[in-house]
Fold each of these.
Amino acid sequence: MQQIEQTPVPAPCDAELIQTACRRAHEGTLSVDGCTPVAVGMVHLFESEAFMVVPDDAPVHELAERALDGVSAMLELADCAPISLRERVRSLIWLSGTVHSVPAPLERDLAVEIAGDHPDARLLDIGHGYCLLRLHLDNAVIATSQGAGSVNADTLAAASPDPFWEYEGQWISHLEADHQDLVYRLASKFPEHLQRGRVRPLGLDHFGITFRVETPSSDSDVRLPFDRPVSKVTELSAALHEL
């Protein structure tokens, strides 16, 4: 896949991309030696820890309860575009570290605390067939169409998710369904050779908006940067109009 950028401009760093992807992830896979990989529900990053929802009867849960020092593990998840594309995966992320159980008396209170920052209906299942596991992070790796990068736990802990992570999916879907006229106008800014394919909105963050151009033979991503980073919905609306 070809990645096209107009000019070198500020964009989310790898740590921010990972933070954002974890907030949006609907599922992941936790792998531990000696256990069948288990499907994970929501993933919440806090400092150098990743909390996740898993079934009570997952073998990794029992293993983590027995291991005082934790068990080496890797969590894999994907950040997918919110609309139907030929290739929906925007990035793949691997979080590695040691997995630990969360004491049962603390699970409900911790779930409530997480929900205040990262609302997710699956947290309501804690104590009803599901539990929390904690992955103490050593490092993270992210792979996108631009390449791969490694982020240590301290750098990841210092990063924040994109301020629009919770609404990006709705906005991209709305742009695709109801504002093709705006998409076409923005596409007029693309390099001429990329104005002949099907243009689809791919992603939105506080630095700019990215589109996917689909042709019969290839996919290309084009990023249109805002004049300056935005942090509020009113600023985002103004930045899109300025584009």
Amino acid sequence: MSIRDRLFAAVFDKVMAPMEEAGLAAWRAEVMADLAGTVVDIGSGTGANLAHVPPTVDRLILTDPSAPMLEHLRARLDEVPDGVDVEVVRAPATSLPLGDGEADAVTSMLVLCSVPDVQAVLAEVRRVLKPGGTFAFIEHVAADDKPDRLRWQRRADHVWPHVAGGCRLTRRTGDDIAAAGFEVDDLTRESARKAFPLVRTMIRGRAISPT
């Protein structure tokens, strides 16, 4: 467990607070609304999604590869609605602790920017989701609609991952989700208020696992 990992976990919530208050928290609630049954949250981090878990969820599996992040998350488990069976597992998004088709939904909030292999993660998400299951997501993406910003993203992408937990700035995650075989039936592209300009362009929505 490195000092850098501990520092990143310690400052993460403070860094994210302006974005959460300016609308990101509402987006989390929006994409998670009405999820039910067994739900897997990948890259759970410090637990920003916990307050938005709907009471229709029976079982919630929270996963993250970072032990320091999960330490912060465990201190917030009382934010989950009563009656939800909660499991916390240290695991990467490419090795989820479920059998094939065991999950009704998987959530990913600002995670796919930082994984080494997006398609490997999405393949694992498909594996654990039942046919017709829901993949709910919020991710920042390449600013294709803002050429000046995109140029800065490309310039910074050589350095940014080293100071931001492996985060990449120019991924086209919506295209990746569709390429993985999901049916993207609900997607909104919007600028996140109070976000650092390089990560301001975001997508959110839901996709359906193939039947």
Amino acid sequence: MFVYLNGKLVPEEKARVSVFDHGFLYGDGIYETMRAYKGIVFMVDEHIKRLFRSGDLIKLKINLSHEGIKKAIYNSLKKNNLKDAYIRLSISRGQGEIGLDPELCKKPTFVIIAKQFKEYPEELYLRGVKISIVKTRRNTPEALNPKIKSLNFLNNILAKIEAKEAGAYEAIMLNYKGYLTEGTITNIFFIKDNSLFTPSIEAGILDGITRDLIIRVAERKGIKVTEGLYTPENIYDADETFITNTTLEILPVIKIDKNVIGKGIPGSVTKDLHRSYKEEVERYLKTGKN
């Protein structure tokens, strides 16, 4: 495998970052995760746009242009002979002396990892998964703006540890007021009386690109979508629930903690939305956006 590192594609064994890199020392940096289907990176422009937003919010200057980043992504796919791929793009503050001052770092470290996409087990989609609402609370927006897709993942990791201890596939965090926010790497939706609900941006979540697309798809299908503030009791009483992200797409949830959702099997609305999502992907691929 070849890794894009600061403008060059190098063999993975030579893709090395300094121990003085502030991404390693402090989690000071940003990232995006993307998925390529048939050689085309799905919604690549939206991901790059969000990357620049994250950079602006932490005062990190990205030295490549939008088109330059897109070219680097596609060169990474080509070099690794990939069509269906997982892509992780990371930019850290860069190498510098020990200390929190960003000016200690003169140049960002830019990494793109592209590898063959490994399909999730079909069983997960056929049977659904269990998730857990954990005790670890989501960082408050006043402490860390959720619009920043940050390399610092300790909040999410602590939640993931709780989920694993509970035998759950994913953790869902509450905000400091006790409202539902999001998972460690996912957004969450639930269905009640054929209406779709999801925590609002005001709850303190990242505005997921997949999340936004699903909202648009649902509205085009005539499904009422409400973004708001919800408690665990709201979702425990749901008819259907699912989680989303770029690689998972839409994954059904059939149990939350000790509560069985609906009939304990993936629901019809969830399945229909996933079919429509896949149709959106195919439509995007046909436009030849690359």
